[in-house]
Design a protein that fits this description.
By secondary structure, the protein is mostly beta strands. It folds into two domains: 14-163, Sandwich (Immunoglobulin-like); 169-542, TolB, C-terminal domain (Neuraminidase). Helix content is 8%, strand content 43%. The chain has six helices and 36 strands. Strands 1, 2, 3, 4, 5, 6, 7, 8, 9 and 10 form a ten-stranded mixed β-sheet that branches. A hairpin with a 5-residue loop joins strand 9 and strand 10 (151-163). It is elongated. Mean pLDDT is 92; it is low at 1-14 and 19-31.
Length: 552
């Protein structure tokens, strides 16, 4: 069931501190302070009347079930994050609910609500953080009804806690319309935003109304360098590379192109797919010489099938301005894509699969491009299956070496892609699905040790599509994209402990939109001067006829 709750303001509530005798586990009564809140329907009641109403509620012997959708049991939250949304479904025919929060078996909050959701206001949430410390927070939601209208007739329970590990980063992410064809035809509807997890306000846009298509963005480990793929001047392989500043003017001197590498047939141009900046900001790795399986569909959830049928990894040296293929990741008989750097810059991971000559012929003949847009992703996955393996390759100052399959992320009966090292070098998290590379409904995030090993799915995986992810600078949190709640992709957050075990994902609902997908999230450190505004210096230079003739 989809529950739409995006850029909504918190409930208007009356919050008061009351003292009430509370029963302890030993049966004795102590005076304990707790917060009593109610939404607008109950604000006409005096505090004493409201407390009396809450205390008069009787519990029915047989209770119906309340399913608490968010947050999930055992959710772990960072102290520097704003309050999450509490959402629930109730089997009983009720219109009023009592929320009770306890810490160490002591009441912290009681609240009456007539909606199936609650967003704690800032002051209440900050008090909860302070009161909880390292302790579990017990949340009980009871549905109110019965003959008297004063019985608890349904119940749901969830436990959560705060982590001492802060995120200490902001989030850069893209918003785009769906389906993909709409985004392609309307590049001005794309935006790049900077979000603060601790803010109760919506994320701030830093790039709006671009006249050209802009996609993947990438940052150095310290956040001081950035690159963004954009079709500048009609060049599908163009990208912006710059130091991070409060304001960036997009102009010719900041634009580079993967076309500096001569495309090798059957490719007719280079896109530089899934480009990544090296940790020190000096190099950029991307996919060139690619021809792609590409079908656009009308379905909002999964509106494209996309993966390269040919591809090689290339490197751009920002100091020498030189482009070159990476030996060991530029073999003719293999498709190589989706590069990723180790935090020391010594190793590059990438996804690869043997080339399929029959598939390449269909791409070149544009047979696949003519597939009906009325199909769904399952139909196309069955027609064009593919399973990528992840390889590890020494960078060796651009000289490369021998690529070796990564244990736990290769030859396992799945497609493995989008690997990301944790900044501390301990873990690798990647996306895994039965087939494909992008926008796969059955995709999950999987973790292994950085040297390879047993792969374990993250506990944060939701029911539909778990993919593109980014590590926080301290290696304690991962943000990822998901479609479990909406066709318009949303961002979720999970905690990773020292054993590589993840907590259930929590939806970052303030980053969501009713009409736009949140995509390509990337953490950026707080200690630097972050981007606030990005503008085009010349629309004439930026917007020209596209070089693409294959629909991409």
């Amino acid at each position: 069931m989809r529950i739409t709750i995006f850029n909504l303001l918190p409930l208007i509530i009356a919050a008061i501190i009351v003292s009430s005798p509370c029963q302890t586990t030993g049966g004795q009564k102590n005076n304990s302070q707790f917060i009593l809140i109610a939404d607008t329907d109950y604000q006409s009641l005096a505090p004493g009347e409201l407390l009396s109403l809450v205390n008069s509620l009787a519990k029915k012997n047989s209770l119906s079930s309340i399913n608490i959708i968010e947050p999930l049991p055992d959710t772990v939250l960072p102290l520097d994050m704003a309050s999450p949304a509490f959402l629930w479904e109730d089997e009983a025919n009720t219109t009023t609910w009592l929320i009770t929060i306890k810490i160490n078996n002591k009441f912290f909050l009681k609240g009456l609500f007539n909606k199936r959701w609650w967003i704690p206001e800032k002051e209440t949430w900050n008090r909860l953080k302070k009161a909880a410390g390292k302790n579990d927070i017990e949340v009980v939601i009871g549905g109110i009804g019965g003959w008297t209208g004063r019985e608890i007739i349904s119940r749901g329970y969830v436990s959560l806690r705060f982590s001492e590990d802060r995120v200490n980063a902001k989030l850069m992410f893209m918003r785009k319309p769906l389906p993909f064809l709409k985004a392609k035809k309307n590049p001005e509807k794309t935006s790049l935003l900077l979000g603060d997890l601790g803010s109760y306000k919506a994320p701030e846009p830093v790039l709006t109304d671009p006249p050209i298509c802009a996609n993947c963005h990438t940052y150095s480990l310290d956040g001081r360098h950035m690159a963004i793929d954009m079709d500048y001047g009609g060049d599908k392989g163009a990208f912006l590379y710059t130091r991070m500043n409060k304001e960036v003017v997009i102009e010719n001197k900041l634009i580079y192109s993967w076309q500096d590498i001569i495309p090798q047939k059957p490719a007719t141009y280079n896109m530089g797919l899934f480009a990544r900046i090296s940790p020190d900001g000096r190099f950029v790795a991307g996919t060139v010489n690619e021809t792609s399986v590409f079908v656009m569909m009308d379905d909002l959830f999964f509106s494209q099938l996309f993966y390269p049928a040919t591809g090689r990894i290339a490197i751009f040296d920002t100091r020498t301005k030189h482009f070159s293929l990476l030996p060991g990741a530029s073999l003719e008989h293999r498709v190589q894509t989706s590069p990723s750097w180790s935090p020391d810059g010594r190793t590059i991971l990438f996804s690869a699969v043997p080339t399929n000559l029959e598939l390449i012929q269909k791409v070149v003949a544009k047979e696949i491009l003519k597939e009906s847009s009325k199909q769904n992703i399952s139909d196309l996955n069955e027609k064009y299956p593919v399973q990528f393996d992840i390889y590890a390759l020494p960078f060796n100052h651009g000289n490369g070496g021998q690529a070796k399959p990564l244990k736990g992320a290769s030859h396992n009966g799945y497609s493995n892609y989008f690997p990301r090292y944790s900044p501390n070098g301990k873990w690798i998290v990647f996306t895994q699905s039965p087939t494909g590379l992008v926008l796969q409904p059955d995709s999950n995030l999987v973790i292994i040790q950085s040297e390879g090993g047993e792969a374990r799915p993250l506990n944060s995986n939701q029911s539909i599509m778990n993919s593109w992810h980014s590590w926080s600078p301290n290696s304690k949190w991962i943000v990822f994209t998901c479609k479990a709640n909406s066709p318009y992709t949303e961002l979720y957050l999970t905690h990773i402990d020292d054993r590589g075990v993840s907590s259930p994902g929590i939806r970052l609902f303030r980053f969501s939109s009713n009409e736009l997908a949140a995509m390509v999230p990337e953490f950026v450190p707080l200690h630097i001067e972050l981007l606030e505004k990005m503008i085009f210096g010349s629309l004439e230079n930026a917007k020209k006829k596209s070089m693409a003739s294959d629909g991409r």
